[in-house]
Amino acid sequence: MSTAVDMPRFVRAQQVEALPPPSLTRGPIAWVRENLFSGPFNTLLTLVVFYLLYISVPPLLNFLFIDAVWSGADRAACRADMGGSETGACWAFVREKLSYFTYGSYTVSERWRVDVFFALLALGVGWLLWLKAPRRDLGAVYFFWLFPVVSYILLTGGNADFSGRFWIGFLIFGALLIALFAFIAALLKTSLRPALIIGGGIVAVIGITLVLMDMDFGLEHVPTSLWGGILVTLLVATVGIVVSLPFGILLALGRRSKLPVVRMASVIFIEFVRGVPLITVLIMANTMLPLFLPGDITVDRLLRPLIGTALFSSAYMAEVVRGGLQAMPKGQYEGAMSLGLNYPQMMILIILPQALRIVIPGIVNTFIGLFKDTSLVAIVGIFDVVKTIEASRIDPNWAAPTIGMTGYAFAALFYFIFCFGMSRYSLGVERRLAAGQKR
Fold first, then answer.
1. Is 158 helix (H, G, I), strand (E, B) or coil?
2. How many domains would you assign to the chain?
3. Is the pLDDT of residue 11 over 80?
4. Which residues are CB-contacts of 382 (< 8 A; sequence separation ≥ 6)?
5. Which residue ranges does UniProt annotate as crossing the membrane (predicted)?
6. Residue-number span of the structural domain to which 264 is assigned
7. I need a surface site. Which of 4, 65, 153, 414 has the fewest CB within 10 A?
């Protein structure tokens, strides 16, 4: 029989000092090994990318910054035969023409109105996009109604001078719109009173807007033929983005409608617009739209590409939204109907919020594509920021080898800032909306 042997015990009174993790498993060295040199193929790709960066980035930095010309009054600063330098970008040209790139040929004494427009646009966008902003409902009213009216008055000078024939046509349009809402309410078997209130409210808002546009505020009239540069680019992009999303939602719902007329009309519009390039739409809007109107009615030359761009983007937005609607499980529809919600309530309160959240990347991608496609309005004679650069680089006072490349580098930077900003904001919204699903 064995007996247990009492072993001595040792208890440490002080805690052992923590040691840093091994450098091969944590830290930058481990990250490099895991992400850049984790295997033969990954190592080869890393070396190829490093080589491409080596042969492209230094010359680009030399051209844009190190060898660039930052000051000068004319082409002499950017021409070697006149004592200047022609190996780098001629930023003196951009500084000299920056006013034209921003305002186009807008009247010099009235350019403060464009500056106010930029400030109001920044206020509206910031109010809506800042998720913690107070009273975002008022921000929506400001951005979608007050801001467009004030911008029209500021940029054009107001005093639209509508004729009596126009007001008679508006009254007929208002009556037809109210009747349309009543007809839709009858088809959906809902109460008639809310439909009349909504239709009448829309007609009243449009009427107040037209009255404000017709008033004389004492501002000098500036025709749209003088607008150009960044002003036109931001204006076309803003109108296209604001109009395309609601119209795209309506087209997506119309394509899924059980009413044959509504469904076929939506399908024909979407497929026709998506089947032709934007250039064709702009040319048709510029040349064909006036042919469908009476001889004494003309459409402003800037309004034509605005309409064409908005309708073109709406067709693509409709397909993005339709993808979100198809991704919704059938149980969401059944749950909404079990609560006694009618079709508009079900779509507004249950289905659309979830569907739009699913397709946020597609929506933002469409917005980014629309923003870049604004440069195509130059084809119909609208001087956007790219067109103003092309017009400026043929100025004989700035005839230098690097003028064209410098101008397009400025345009690339302008588009990159806005497109990258939209992309990063969409990522933040996605993370915020997906936070509840990760818990």
1. strand
2. 1
3. no
4. 228, 232, 236, 301, 302, 305
5. 36-57, 112-131, 138-155, 167-188, 195-213, 225-253, 265-285, 305-325, 346-368, 398-422
6. 237-382
7. 4
